[in-house]
Amino acid sequence: MEQLLGKEWEITPAGGATGDAYFAEYEGKKLFLKRNSSPFLAVLSAEGIVPKLVWTKRMENGDVITAQQWLNARELKPHDMGSEQVANLLRKIHCSKELLAMLKRLGKTPLLPAMMINELKVSLTSDLLETYPIIQHALSWLEHELASVEHEELVVCHCDINHNNWLLTEDNQLYLIDWDGAMIADPAIDIGMLLYSYIPEEQWEEWLRIYGVQLTEHLRIRMKWYVVSQTLFSFLWYKTKNEEKEMQRLLHFLERVLGK
């Protein structure tokens, strides 16, 4: 990184799962650097969905480094997720033809329910299903409801709308960051996880009105289906990390969702 910016810049790791993100600072100037970001970042920046892309540079070893504005911002708290700003930004993302066109150019193919079921069947071993009856129940429910979740409108979905991925600046500008897992899919993937995780059910109808759709029975079943499937994928990920506490939290979450 130093060869790109100069030795006078102070560069520190920014954490994250990949270890490829950094903060850089020099004489009051601040940048957020990332190695090998997707070309998708440029479109997200142009759409005002992520902090502004300042430059992109290719290193001698072929790595591509991107620099974005480093903003004075805070992560949203769980209680912030019901705001009109969140609903409006998510709607903007789901309606963006530019984002969809770019993901298609990058070779992304739609994430379909049948594909998710097949992957879960491969990953959920018989031992797991015997050990955790709620997971067996969840998988059976997903299979039973598969035909009920067909939906023609596929959009760009973030697929990890955790409150920590939303940044609110001091001048009240909202951004959604960390797009490494973005997919072309049913918007119910994002909407369902947001509502089930953060919004009391009696407020779903109003939140969806702000977002711009009605709470139909078809939307309900699609949201529930994707929440259950995403939770199973998250459980599998945490199991590989042997994070028992998170595994138990997800099992309790599954029980709550399937009890509805």
TrEMBL record:
Gene Ontology molecular function: any one: kinase activity
One Pfam family this sequence matches: APH
Domain of life: Bacteria
Domain Aminoglycoside phosphotransferase residue range list: 14-215
Keywords: Kinase, Transferase
InterPro entries in alphabetical order: Aminoglycoside_PTrfase, CcrZ_PhaseVar_Mediator, Kinase-like_dom_sf
Protein name as annotated: Thiamine kinase-like enzyme
Lineage of the species this protein comes from: Bacteria, Bacillati, Bacillota, Bacilli, Bacillales
